[in-house]
């Protein structure tokens, strides 16, 4: 892992991947070539389309899903919104208190159809699932402080009561191994640990769930034969999850394809081991127990400002200073951050 940071070139100690990830050299090069071909009017959309499909295949591998079950959209909220709009009137949704808005707001947006949203503390989520629950939605990793959800318990409870399970993997995909097929839907925005530009999201949609979904955003990209569907009078959608694709974000997708290849070459087990080791090294220096996450936070006074003065980029979330580690970070970064907070 010592050579991995050589794929990045940053002017700061970037401990802020939970806000946005930094592209490795192959991804930056791919994006630069595409932008240059666009600027010089030499770019071929067919080539960009092939890169988009390469992104689908590689992203599917990273989240443990068949490529045919992966749809590509723009954001977590956009894809969750499609699921929410397809729920029957009066459906009852269960979410954790204080979860990220993108996995909460889409269900509230259907209130005029009688859809209700109940929020409970995350540790109580599995116990709160009952026979009246139609869908459970939650983040696998909390974006503010990195707490890992009790995923197995939640999924087991939902299955026992026949409820759908929608997981937001935005703060998990790209640093920890996943098995998307455990869920009815697993959604992730790709601009964090997957190190793509903003504007690309992916989702595993199970075959059974897809039968219940309404393709509200269908256009040519969702068609069985996209090239011949641009002026079609009748809608003939792809028999795969591509039926829920929206118009492709070529540049974000081709960057994601290159970043995903780096992650696949390293292996997500190694990525998780690296990232969590750095987080827990930092936490140990502050006298905290291991968190086994790539995200942590501190409520130390003026932590954000003290880290910034040391050239370390973090962010504030929920009244605390959040730090997040990825492949371009080192043990020296973790120690530098701890020293900045501990020195008089």
UniProtKB/TrEMBL annotation:
Q: What keywords appear on the UniProt entry?
A: Aminotransferase, Transferase
What GO annotations for molecular function exist for this entry?
transaminase activity
Statement: the UniProt record of this protein carries the keyword Acetylation = no
Q: What SUPFAM superfamilies does the entry give? A: PLP-dependent transferases
Q: What InterPro entries does its record include?
A: Aminotrans_V_dom, PyrdxlP-dep_Trfase, PyrdxlP-dep_Trfase_major, PyrdxlP-dep_Trfase_small
Q: Which PANTHER family match?
A: CYSTEINE DESULFURASE, PYRIDOXAL PHOSPHATE (PLP)-DEPENDENT ASPARTATE AMINOTRANSFERASE SUPERFAMILY
Record protein name field:
Aminotransferase V
In its UniProt entry, the species of origin is given as Nocardiopsis sinuspersici
Could you read off the lineage of the organism from its UniProt record? Bacteria, Bacillati, Actinomycetota, Actinomycetes, Streptosporangiales
